[in-house]
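Summary for the funding panel

The consortium committed to producing paired sequence-structure records for every protein in the target list. Below we show the first two records in order, beginning with the earlier of the two.
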Amino acid sequence: MPVGIFRVCLVVITAIINHPFLFPKENGTVPENTEEIIQKMKEREESLRLAQLRLEQEIADQEATQKALEKAAEVVEESKEKKFQWDMWTALSMVIFLLIELWRQDFQEGNWQDTGGEEDDMAVLGKAFKGLAFPDKTVLASFYEKRILGTTGDMARMREMVEGFADDLLEALRSVCNRDADMEVEDCMGVGSMYENWRVRKPFVCDLIVPFAPPEPYCFRSQTWCSGDSFPPDKQGYGTIKVCRANEDVTGCICDKTKLGEDMLCLLHSQANTTRPSSEMEDLLCFKNTQYLDADQVMKWFQIAVTKAWNRISHKYEFDLSFSLLDSPGALKIKFRSGKSIAFNLTPVVQYENSDVYFISHFPRTSLAPDLPSSIHWFLTFAVYERRFIQLVSKTLPANACHVSCLQILSFLHGKQCSLTGPSGLTNYHLKTVMLHLLQARPSQDWASEKLEARLQDMLKFLEKCLHEKKLYHFFIGNGKVPAELGFPIIFQRAEPLNLFRPFVLHRDVYRKTVDTFHEMLRNTSALINEYTVRIPLAHTNGIHKESL
């Protein structure tokens, strides 16, 4: 713009200087060719006028361009501001949506109940461990040596005796069964706390599982809740077992699903085997008018077979054998003439495919599951893999590691508290699950014997957190970090995690009782341990601790 103004001024000054009337010649006379000069001056004036118009047009164009650039800059700045505001609102909306979704999930899980009493419990639970006067490692070492260590030898002798008798009993059972019609019984396996060496509460009870299979030409076809079939939420962790012929299609022939005409025959199945009488399926221990294996029928058959087997070999032993519990059909008791007795559980199971996961016919009832499931739904047990995992991890831990000691002490405290205030929703299996999670989460060196106190506190804090959230996930189901050496079935690793504390959401009275029992156990920890602990000089504590752990 300044350059244009300068040009206009220069043109005007030049025109003034060259105008003939302003600077006449010295003689003051008008030349002869005046008209020609006037004509040239007009042409000159016209050219200057055109130049001036052109310069003004250029100046106007420059001003318009400048304004357009300024307007564009303003538009860009305004768009940036609007975009920033939009992005901010979008992000804020997403955060609000996520918070609502998290709240909805927690609400569905029952974490936010609309009762003030439970919220008060949660407030207490969050502070319960902070003010706890916890026994030191010296007291814990003395307690472990006096109360727990001495039971190891008793468990080993009892296991040996029970296993020998169970093998003899099952051999007799095979001899009394009809091999062409009855189920085929395999060798028994020991599982649970007695075989993982952490049982502390008496009476000691050995848990034995007995796999069985159908007679030829039949086989078992199993379905689990995570295999894609529809199972209700309360049947998570269960499966069904279908009794089929070995050459029968898994999905079944269309002749079983549609009504064929009288003049039509199935080319795959003869008339003799297209329909099986209901009596035949009942002989195979199936639920009435179905092909699904009935757990109640299996237990009735097994009790009758065990009774026949004992009658055959009873003359060899100087004790009596009887079924001890009505609600646990596999519970047996050996009664000696001296009055002493030994209890053990002998439970029939069905193998899941070619793995060491088993469908168990009856599972010990707890206050968390007061309602009996359908007899065609079988609970899956991973006890064999749990035992293998503990053995595998133990090889990587320091000598005299404290993981089993922690579980034993916690199991003792909980059992002792339940004997004082009544049963709660917590079981020894929940306590073992806590230990399994911590074994996988913490490095090996953290389980050295001198860290018993710290690890026991970790287990209590972890259990406190799980109770607060009502979430304790099954160790194997949905756990993608299971060691490959175990050969664990991939279908269960890819399944959704199974919350063992889900029943707490449905049974709030049991949950409140469990929380109260946990609080009492924490408050009574020192008293319960000191009751079985003899105070000893500090000089001897280190030696006792090393020997006991």
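The next record, for a separate protein in the list, is shown here:
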Amino acid sequence: QLYSSSLDGTVKLWDFTDGILIKTFTVGCKLLALYAHASFEDSVFVIIPKSGERDSFQLVSVKLTKAADQEIEAKELSVVLDGVDKSPKHTAFGREGEYVASVKDLELQVYFFKRKQVNRFSLSATSRKGGNNRFTCIACHPKEDCIATGHGDGKIRLWRNFYHNKEYTFSTLHWHHDIVMDLAFSVEGTSLLSGGIESVLVQWHNGSDCKKDFLPRLGSAIECISVSSDGTSYCTSHTDNRITIISSNLRFSRSIQGLIKARDVKTGLVVDPRTKALVLNGEPGHLQFYCLQTDKQLYSLDIVQQEYIHQEGLKQIDLVKVAFSAQGKWLATVEEREDDTDLELQLKLWVYDEETQSFKLNTRINMPHEDHITAMCFRDTDEVEDNSAMLVTASKDCLFKAWVIVEDTDPEAQQSVSWSCDFVGSYHNYQATNCCFSEDGSLLAVSFEETVTVWDSFMWDLKCTFCHPPGKIRNICFGRLTCSKYLIGATDHGFLCCWNLLSCALEWSAQLNVLVLQPDPLSEHIAAVSWISKDSSLFVFKPNDPRPVCIQRNLCKDKIQFAVFVPRDIPETTGSEKHLWLRRSQIFFLTNTQELITLSTKSPEERLTPSSKQLVVEESLPMTPFSLLLGKHRHQKSQEDVDLGKVVLHSHPNQDSPAVKELLHTPAHVLPSASFLCPIFINSLLISKENKSAEEVADEVEMESKDSEDGSDEERDIAEPEQDDQQPMDFWGETACKLSKSEERELRKIRKMDYSWISSF
């Protein structure tokens, strides 16, 4: 079984193998850390805020009463230690639960349960050599009276004889060059594990500085270390949202990795046209290709191709821009490295290699601009011929450049084509901030501070300019499909503008602080994300109509940095008009805390139910050999009746309920009380009226009263409440339109007509 704690003030007891909640203990205050020790069977230890004091925390013991109820009040608290740190890594229990040790800032305190005594030990802020002595983590030896502490300067101290305030001793281990982030002893205590920002797991043997082993290149800084109860495996969690499983002989076993949490996402969110994967910054100097359907990383592409040095304050090469061509054949990346005086820039063009199924470097351009590159985009073409491919880069050096493919005349060149600059443009020596192509690629829009310029991308003539002072242009994009004659722009002074390219005039404008502007590549819709009163809100609109088709306020509390539309493999069927804009594409957002958010038209139950449970087998019958045979027979009989033009009523057996499954498959000794299970079981047997379609309800009424008149009051009285119950609810809380009574009567007459003659055609 497993205990968990939460900021909601509860401790929950789980049967984690079956995912069943057994009991809930309500403590009543925020729980910041939880410790359970075998020596204290009826108690757990939690860290809570100290009442009446800010940023002050206590370690307290919580008595867990053995009542039969599922929800229990746990109000019996006793303070163990005052002035502890809220981090779980700063408190640890000693051998056999005889003592608990906690560190905060420069102080170590040890509480002995039997003696009910606290010993405190302090360190100076810096050592004689200038090292940082601040405590960062703690671990206790499982068999001996020994405490290991990690420090800000990379040192590890092993404390002994701490039963005495003045006669204590400690020895020092030192390999880490920066902060020690976590420590853990092996099961028998023969080795000590440590980790830090170097991405190296260090194994110290018998507390000796001379005997140590290393497992390097684990990808990112190690945040936490855990040891399995049998001692055969170690587990590390990392700052990049990764979990690594390691065998006890320091051999890599496997990695659990979803979306990599990068140090800083500068590339934005981009979709790979080939795989429909989400592409953004991953490991330092890499692009991650993340599959949204499976929550797994497809692969990582090394762009910088240099070893990353894990050291704070060191200026290293950053991957800042990425763009794909329309069919995914070409990939463009921008790298930069900036120190106090110099700026290094590299523009790389990669071509997709069908043999290796990956991208291969084609062209490297050093210093394509004299200042930071602010935007980059490809011209959308069918890419049948490389001659039509074009890349545009905009920069703070007041220039935008167009790059095209040329034949490589060098006989020693490894490829036949490469990229070269074809045109350089500017506007009144203003900084170029954004660029984008129209849908057909004939026009290029480049924003220069407060002005948007529109260029002919073939002849490079300046066609027109737009301006909406005050404020610089933050985002621009062209309309698509039927709205391709519009250009949309957002300013940093809180205005959203729509210009008509045919009349060269402002079509409409709205006062909205837009941070992100993202067009859907498969429809006319454009998503605008605003930041209003410390909340991110979403507005979806078509350029030809200033009224939004969808407004989602308070989308999240964090600031949304990027958004992208991902095309669906199969268009989604939705009955709501407000959801039509999500039919062909799904929108994803990335916040400043690197949380990936999406909007869904499905209910929470549908999203959380595995796809295997959503499969319907022969009219929702349970999947058993008998039901498969019975279902096949019913399907044949139903088909015969339909061919004869008959109306057939089918019973709707109950779904194979998850509640019933859990009841039958869960071991009896971990089941909750019968009073808790009974309502769930009874509810699972009830048939919801919402499962009936409008046609089925009307047909039932007709079958029951086929001898009565069409417009009888009795039939209307029966049909109306059924119709009210079965109307589908709109996702945004509105009800669909209902048919009038006269329309219902006409519909019943049509149903009674024989259309079997159509089958002959």
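Regarding this second record: Helices lie at 604-608, 611-614, 625-643, 658-665, 674-685, 694-704, 713-726, 741-752. The domain at 87-257 is CATH 2.130.10.10 (Methylamine Dehydrogenase; Chain H).
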